[in-house]
Design a protein that fits this description.
With 316 residues, this protein is an alpha/beta fold. The protein has a single domain (2-312), classed as TIM Barrel (Alpha-Beta Barrel), CATH 3.20.20. It is built from 14 helices and eleven strands. It has helices spanning 7-16, 41-51, 70-90, 106-119, 142-151, 167-170, 179-193, 196-199, 214-228, 236-240, 253-263, 283-288, 297-305, 307-312; strands at 2-3, 56-59, 95-97, 99-100, 125-128, 130-131, 134-135, 154-158, 204-207, 244-246, 268-269. The strands form three sheets. A six-stranded parallel beta sheet has the order 4-5-8-9-10-11. Helix 4 links the parallel strand 4 (99-100) and strand 5 (125-128). The protein is globular, with a radius of gyration of 18 Å.
Length: 316
């Protein structure tokens, strides 16, 4: 996954402001926002070429078009989706996107999903791990899963930066550095507990950042989770291995190796979190760290050049 933040969209979120934004998004009004515009595209495309990246799949990261007022959410969702579609039209084969939804408004989200997939040609759907501090695995979101299952589409999750609503994370200043990975792990656990993959098996679920702490917990989940969830259709580790996980890991060889052993190479997909990691490493290094690992060359080739294309239904 990668990100692009059009200034008109950021301005729209700021206008919504106040209590219309989820708790996690209110910091938008208190910090400098990255504004992307067409003048930066040549440099971005050059970085992509240098890194061997053919296409970026865009989403607005932790700044989704969510609002308490349906009209606000719909306007913001249409704005960002139209901006991504225009970018894809101007640079065919280099950019596409997953549809941003005007949550928590389900009927409006179903309409925008249809527009994004059928009219704008987007490659899947984007949801954050929670919306207004409610897990997006909860029952109120099931009409969205039903439609995605019918369409056999890709669902890409992303943290919303709420530190899993925990003062033990947020009060200590780890909302982004640690909380995001806990959000990734939480949505995997919620999907397992609510038996979402069993009930909606045609969706291709993509979780970012190697799934957070999930790779380290599979055996413990298998041992202990069935006590609290005796009606699970299979071991939690089996369900977790049905998902796909992108390789954004801040270059951590330990995290990569753990996820590779936990999930297998076939369920790891290329991703960069662009432009987030550029503060710490080059765009090329976002991917090159796999070549520096002990993973077999054929697995690195799968992860970097084939798996995401298979998930997204692209030529490879």
């Amino acid at each position: 996954h990668a990100h692009y933040f059009p200034k008109p969209y950021n301005d729209a979120l700021l206008r919504i402001g106040g209590r219309s934004l989820p708790e996690a998004a209110r910091s938008l009004t208190a910090r400098t926002i990255r504004n992307d515009d067409p003048s930066g595209l040549p440099a971005r495309l050059q970085q992509m070429d240098d890194a061997g990246v053919q296409m970026q799949i865009l989403s607005p990261a932790a700044s989704p078009p969510y609002a308490e007022k349906e009209a606000d959410a719909v306007a913001a969702a249409r704005l960002v989706n139209d901006a991504y579609a225009e970018l894809a039209r101007k640079h065919p084969g280099r950019f596409n996107a997953v549809v941003s939804l005007p949550l928590p408004h389900i009927d409006a989200s179903l309409r925008e999903m249809e527009r994004g997939l059928d009219q704008l040609g987007m490659l899947g759907v984007s949801m954050t791990c929670s919306c207004f501090d409610r897990s997006t695995a909860e029952a109120e979101f099931e009409p969205l899963y039903q439609e995605m299952n019918r369409r056999r589409t890709v669902l890409n999750y992303h943290p919303i930066q709420n530190g899993i609503c925990s003062p033990m994370i947020n009060d200590y200043g780890f909302t982004v550095s640690v909380g995001a990975s806990l959000e990734d792990a939480a949505i995997v656990l919620h999907l397992i507990a609510r038996r979402i993959p069993e009930r909606f098996p045609n969706i291709r679920y993509v979780v970012p950042h190697l799934g957070g702490i999930i790779p380290m917990l599979l055996q413990r989940l298998d041992n202990q989770a069935p006590r609290q969830h005796p009606n699970l259709p299979e071991r939690p580790s089996v369900t977790a291995r049905r998902f796909y996980y992108d390789i954004v890991a801040h270059g951590s060889q330990a995290a990569l190796l753990c996820a590779w052993k936990a999930f297998g190479a076939d369920h790891l997909v290329a991703g960069s979190d662009y432009p987030v990691l550029l503060a710490f490493e080059t765009y090329r290094q976002n991917f090159h760290y796999l070549h520096e690992s002990i993973l077999p060359a054929e697995d690195v080739e799968k992860i970097l050049h084939h798996n995401a294309q298979i998930v997204l239904g692209l030529e490879h």
